[in-house]
Fold this protein.
Amino acid sequence: MSANKLKTFLVFNFIIPASFFIFAIYFMPIEQVFQFDTSDEGIELIKATLHLDGFAMYTQVWNDQPPLFTVILASWLAWFGKSIYSARLLTLSFSTILVWSFCQTLRIYLGNLPAIIGTLLLIISCNFLRLSVSVMIDLPSVAMVMLSIYTLSLYKKNVAQKFSKILIVISGGLLALSLQIKLFTAFIAPLIIFDLLQFTFKKNPQHQLKRQLFFNAVLWLTACLGIFIIVGILCNSLTYEQLLQSHLNNNVKTVFQAGYSQKLTLLFLLQDFDYLLLAILATIIIFQKKQWEKYFPIIWLITGFIVLINHQPVWYHHYLLLSIPLAWLATYGVTLSFNFFRQRKWYAKFKPRNFKKITVSGLAAGFVIFSIIVTPIKLGVIILENHRYLEQSQEHIQFVNILLKYKPSTKWVFTNCPIYAFYSGLPVPPEIGVLSRKRIESKTITPEQIIAVFETYHPEQVLLCKSQTIQNYLNSYLNQHYLNTYGNHLGNHYLLKETALKPLPMTNDK
């Protein structure tokens, strides 16, 4: 390997991913912030804790998501300790895989310099850094998708080489792993199959076409379905009722209105408006020049947008389904400006008298300059949000301290905010490990079932975050059996009356 090739190899396979990993650790307060997400972080942490304690998912622990991330997180916590810092490093590791595979894919399609630029665009895109350090399943799932796409890109680049078809199998398997983390990437599978069919059709001679055209697509799909089913059998996750029914329930669609989903999906694109301008320009040029080898992020972006505006509910973390193809297309838009910036005194071209003579390259350059101008604003917003998370953390810690105060006499804690249970090291009944708003609104858990949890486990402590529905379910029962010891705008803490009458056990804590 020549010195230049070795240098390039090190830059793209070690320096760039390592730099991102280190930057995220120092830029994002991953150890100091109590929670980056008010619901999902706690749910993922408590599911992993329950799994680690031996409770079975889908039978003992109700779970409306695939199991793979829970299994990985549980093992990770067993190896590196049950801490929020450790758990967030796992998500950051997945994010580093995403950044690396995205960068490598751009290298194949656009070259080295655009790959570096595109990676920077992705990193500073809206909510990417936040999701990179949040204990949530969305980013790990998308990371496996991007790795699948990169693997397939390697196949297309090395199609003539021996054993290249193993890359098709690996790509299908990686997409299956993505689906076993979260099912929201399912719409990308037919896009990949279509891309593989289009590539095979273009590369093969006519007399081999029929056999070869469908063989590659069937091979990819077989690998995807095979790995998905194997993981499902091993984790007992092939359950329609929990994985799909709670998401498709009509009650959910009524509570989470379509209009809100549509507005939020449109807002996603406006949050990275500079990328959108570059992406639109890139899309126009791709169609004008019929550069069909570059169409994949276009159909990904359009399909993802259609899926989201028709999905209920839509959350901020769903933006990953749009931000990655948007950053990909924006990178292509940046490359259109290269010829303009190579000119001597290019800045003189932006004088008002030259606007009528503006070229595509000049227009792209203008969008690039606009993106450079707004980048400090984006980073400033991230800093302000981090500061807000840090300020809120003190209020959350107050509830954890209350749980810890009564921990010696507590066997179970009932809460609809399980992140407090994770921080305090207290177990929750497995039936209510996932007590999300979606589960409540979809009626997959009823008031009678919730009361039954109390009758079975007799939790010594109850911590309810603000939820009018849960409060209405439990008001009468709590008033009869529990004392309200503390409350603020975040929620209320209750103590079992029998426990409140007992003296606290002595501890050796100093």
Observations:
- The mean pLDDT is 88.
